[in-house]
Amino acid sequence: MENGFLFLDEMLHGVRWDAKYATWDNFTGKPVDGYEVNRIIGTKAVALALREAQIHAAALGYGLLLWDGYRPKSAVDCFLRWAAQPEDNLTKEKYYPNIERAELITKGYVASQSSHSRGSTIDLTLYHLDTGELV
C-alpha cells in the first residue's frame, strides 16, 4: 500500500464497512478490478476526519458504515468497460432500474476519473448503534 494510505478500520475502532466493489454485490455483478479485499482504504488525513465524525455520530447514537474509499484507476477503467457493454439485465433491477446502462456515463454516475482515486473521498451512511439498522 502506498505511503500515507491505510485500511481505515485500523484507525477507526468500531467502524463497520462493506466494500461492495470487492464483492459480487454491486452494479457490475462481480468483484471490480483493483479491489483485492473487502476493506476500505483511505488516507491518514481522511481517517482522522472520520474519527472526529465517528465521535460526533456516536454522541447522537449513530455509527458509521463505510461503503467505499480509495478507488484504484483499474476499478474506474473496469466501470467504463462494463458501462460500454450491452445491457444484460443481471443487475439492472436492483441497482439502476430507472435508467439505461448507457446513460450511466452520460448522466455522470460512471466517469473516466474519480475523486475516490485520491483516497480522500468516502461513501458512507449512518446506522443506529442500538439496533444496527441503517438510518
In short:
The protein has 4 helices and 5 strands. With 135 residues, it is of the alpha+beta class. The termini are far apart.
What labels describe this entry?
135 residues, alpha+beta, Muramoyl-pentapeptide Carboxypeptidase, domain 2, two-stranded antiparallel ribbon, 4 helices, A_A_dipeptidase, D,D-dipeptidase, metal-binding, dipeptidase, cell wall biogenesis/degradation
Helices and strands: which structural class?
alpha+beta
* Binned strand content: 15-25%
> What Rg do the Cα atoms give?
16 Å
Coarse morphology: globular
**Helix and strand run:** EEEHEHHHE
Number of domains: 1
**Under the CATH scheme, which class?**
Alpha Beta
Q: Determine the number of helices (DSSP H or I, runs of at least 4 residues).
A: 4
Instruction: Quote the distance from N terminus to C terminus.
Output: 32 Å
Catalytic activity: D-alanyl-D-alanine + H2O = 2 D-alanine
GO biological process, one term: cell wall organization
Keywords: Cell wall biogenesis/degradation, Dipeptidase, Hydrolase, Metal-binding, Metalloprotease, Protease, Zinc
Organism: Enterococcus faecium (Streptococcus faecium)
Give your account of this protein's structure.
The chain has about 140 residues and is an alpha+beta fold. It is about 25% helix and about 15% strand. The strands form two sheets. Strands 2-4-5 form a three-stranded mixed sheet, with helices on one face. The protein has a two-stranded antiparallel ribbon with strand order 1-3. The protein is globular. The mean pLDDT is about 95.
